[in-house]
Amino acid sequence: MKGAAIGVVLHPRRNSREHVDRIVAWAGRHGMEVRTLEEATDLVPSSVKTVPDEDLAIDAGLVIGLGGDGTILRALKAATAHEVPVLGVNLGRLAFLAEVALDELADALDRIDRGEHWLEERAVMTVSGTCFPMEITSFNDSALSRIPGHGPAALAVEVEEEIFARYTADALVIATPTGSTAYSFAAGGPIVSPRHRGLLVTPVAPHAAFDRAVFLHPDERLRVHVLDRSAPLLLEADGQRVAELREGDCIEFSLSPRPARILRLHAQGFYERARRKLQIADSSELAPQ
């Protein structure tokens, strides 16, 4: 594996010391340093270098996320800017982004040594708006949600400079294909293969006859306008607060030209994984005997 370092992102409330020690030993055999984030100083041995988020993946060959989907999303955020792949290790319950369970970590590192892995690219969403100065990166989804106690969200969805639909709803979710199994799915949206590129627009509890999700081509320009009669809204990206929105604000969503890279080890397909993790059951009359 190329690179001078291994980055590790840890779940802040789980004891991962034994597994960090294993990663340190493996990295040492390859002449690579191990880094983690500054906030994790008390969770790692002194041989692990602590750095700011933006330095974690510089010259790294791999970033490992030890935790649930939130931890792995943070690893992706640190790694993707430097085009470094991420290995997700599941310490949680669902962890759709995890490739291996915790007890499989040692075998996973051996398989990486033997070259028995490949990289899978995932679409990354960028979010910009009139009410915040920076461009936000999102790997799963962004949500515009009403602030309770102020009525519904009132939003206009513009695609390619034309208004497609106006919604009053509890929220509007903009998801990548990877994020189609998260909030969008809970709101009734479809499952989309993570190999796709495009954005999925799903209303949450809309007060209208049209309540379907829409999947956009990756080159189509998407804007969401906050209408005059809307309640104040909260914009979140991958579950993290970005900004409060008011009437007249406009948010633009697009796909980044730089994909995220997930390190894969198992031939298990996406649909088998979705079936297992989402506990999809057959109709009773069609279930295998």
Automatic annotation (TrEMBL):
Q: Which terms does the UniProt entry file under GO BP?
A: NAD+ metabolic process; NADP+ biosynthetic process
Transmembrane portions of the chain: none
Which is a Gene Ontology cellular component entry for this protein? cytoplasm
* Stored InterPro entries: ATP-NAD_kinase_N (IPR017438), ATP-NAD_kinase_PpnK-typ_C (IPR017437), NAD/diacylglycerol_kinase_sf (IPR016064), NADK (IPR002504)
Q: Which family does it belong to?
A: Belongs to the NAD kinase family.
Q: What is its EC number?
A: 2.7.1.23
Q: A single GO molecular function, which one? A: ATP binding
Q: Give the catalysed reaction(s), semicolon-separated.
A: NAD(+) + ATP = ADP + NADP(+) + H(+)
What is the organism of origin for this protein? Solirubrobacter pauli
Q: What's the protein called, per UniProt? A: NAD kinase
Classification from the root reads:
Bacteria, Bacillati, Actinomycetota, Thermoleophilia, Solirubrobacterales
Broad class of where this protein is predominantly found: cytoplasm
Described by its record, this protein's role is as follows: Involved in the regulation of the intracellular balance of NAD and NADP, and is a key enzyme in the biosynthesis of NADP. Catalyzes specifically the phosphorylation on 2'-hydroxyl of the adenosine moiety of NAD to yield NADP.
Q: Which amino acids does the record list as binding NAD(+)?
A: D69, G70, R74, N140, D141, D170, A205, Q240
Q: What class of enzyme is it?
A: transferase
Q: Which cofactor does it need?
A: a divalent metal cation
- The gene is nadK
| Protein location | Cytoplasm
